Amino acid sequence: MRLTVGELAKRSGLTVRTLHHYDAIGLLRPSSRSDAGYRLYGQADIERLHRIQALRQLGLALADIGQALSGTQPPLAEVVDRQIAQLDRDLADAARLRERLVHLRAQLTSGQSPDLADWLDTLELMTMYEKYFTPEELKALPLHTDPDVLPAWSALVTAMQSAMDRGATPDDADAQQLALQWMEMVGRGTGNNPAFLLRLRTMTEDEPGMRERSGITPALERFVEESMVSARLAIFARYLDEHEMQRMRQHYGKQMYTWPELIAELRNALADGVPTHDPDVQALAQRWMAMFREYAGDDPATHAKIREAYAREQDLRSGSAVDDALLTYVREAATSAMARPH
Questions:
Q1: Which segment, 3-7, 92-96, 152-156, 291-295, is predicted with the most confidence on average?
Q2: Which of these, 32, 119, 153, 339, has the minimum number of CB atoms within 10 Å of its CB?
Q3: What is the model's pTM?
């Protein structure tokens, strides 16, 4: 049996674009092509794809996977055994959680008050994070692994709520300073991973108890967002004239939650080694430039001032996961897109 790229994408849960990229970088090349030139994948190709996905689940980058598969490869049965072992560990965790919940229920039903150790053990296992992150991702999520992050978050939430309760506005210096600290904590808590930030936001929206546990009410969230925008506009005002600031005040911050998704896509493409002449990367770069121009306008002189501000002011970049490598990647892709014949 041979599968076309579309059939393999559907059966494997990957996208056609991902399979094309694997082909382009030599990670998974189809063993044959049809008379019409379409890619055809056979048994050996599908076995190799299984190895690739197993190594991806272990957190390896594509370049490292290519090197790993270029040497002596373990039998496919051994790869499957490792995945089964991981599933067994996951099932054991679930069984342990069930056992502790049954124990707690028995204590509560009999009128006993479970001791603190029982509650803490159960709470540790009853983590909703596992619904949104893989075990490997949780290991890379400081909010989940760093014992200092949650207390720091809690203190910051309390301080921000106190500022709002005493009538502070987003234009007040203390609210702005707290909002900038909030963005630093976003970067610290997510490991500067915008994909993690998006999933945490989804978890906050979808899990009824999440806001209650964190103390981040919708009103507080809006106050933080407005204070952060005001704080950053105050920084931009050091670099831009009044005419330029009028546009900034009108548009900056309107796509606050669109940027992380775009940044995450481009970071993934950069990490996977997708070249800047790739049409999909160029499309992402063009989206980036369109969103930038929405608040920056079309004047190159204004663009230069804003880029200087970003380069000099850490508070404009904190929590964004944008570094020099990503900016260079975006600029090269955007330039390549402009030079491409239409």
A1: 291-295
A2: 339
A3: 0.63
